[in-house]
Amino acid sequence: MKVIEKFESGKGLRLSEREIPEIGPGEILVKVMAASICGTDYHIYSWDKWSQKRIKPPLVAGHEFAGEVVKVYDDVKRIKVGDHVSSETHIVCGICEFCRTGRSHICQNTKILGVDIDGAFAEYVKIPAANAIINDKNVAPEYLSIQEPLGNAIHTVLAGEIIGKSIAVVGCGPIGLLAVNVAKATGASKIIAIEVNDYRLNLAKELGATILINPLKEDVIKRVLEETNGLGVDVVTEMSGSKNAIESSFKYLKLGGRMSMLGISNENISIDAANDIVFKGITINGVVGREMYKTWNQVNGLIASGNLDLNKIVTHRFSFDEFEKGMELMGKGTCGKVVLYPNN
Ligand SMILES: [Zn+2]
Ligand SMILES: [Zn+2]
Fold first, then answer.
1. Of 172, 205, 241, 309, which has the most beta carbons under 10 Å away?
2. Structural domain boundaries enclosing 80
């Protein structure tokens, strides 16, 4: 089968051939219909510090996908051949303290598809049946392939109350763009998109952002305070991982506000804990993955509601053969979600 893999340490990914995976107990084999490029795939492609530490080549990249089940092991009951599925990409142990207390998203033994084990940039991918999410066959595979990052966005935006609240989405890469759209679909009052890339800022507008701020062009703290009667925003969803952006967001978060952080920063950040956390009485929460499987129910429900603009979020489509074009766009940031198809 055709795969896109990290063959050896170093920059890049390559198109190559592998045997179709054999499945074992509890596993299913899925024929991939569409797979989308995640920031993580781009990190692996560009071989940044994180991937140098974490990735052990050879590895088939990719984890966001939708496909059709072509084989199930004898012991698998819930999933049937012919089902259309996507996958929760965190493969968890089920026996640690966190798994046993309904918090598998922070399982201490998590393995990630396409990061720690072979992923979905392949014609076929094997996954644990337990991780399979059954898809609605009436929704296009390209939209179903982005449910996993959509789950990240939902998990972040809905980590606290949102109806009638003002929200700043800091960083409008694909997950930030999804967060803007989720905030719109779930009743946020004012959606402020903060992003240095004008292409993505404009996309944020199309997806429901009402105020657009480019930090390279204006003072973010000043503008957010102006737009919120000097009080600041109720909710910050931090998607940028940028030290500067994070530090300023604590300055324009309202008293009693919520800071939900998903972006991964490479540097330590410096916060005036007394004045910007304690005396402000704010709540900070770290967001990792998706709650298993509550977030997936929200993903399915929001897609079914028809209130998301998935057609605007998916901006580019390529075959596996042209994956380099997708990576280039990811590097430049002139895209929303980029979807790859195993065949033309
Ligand atoms: Zn992803
Ligand atoms: Zn566990």
1. 172
2. 2-145+309-341
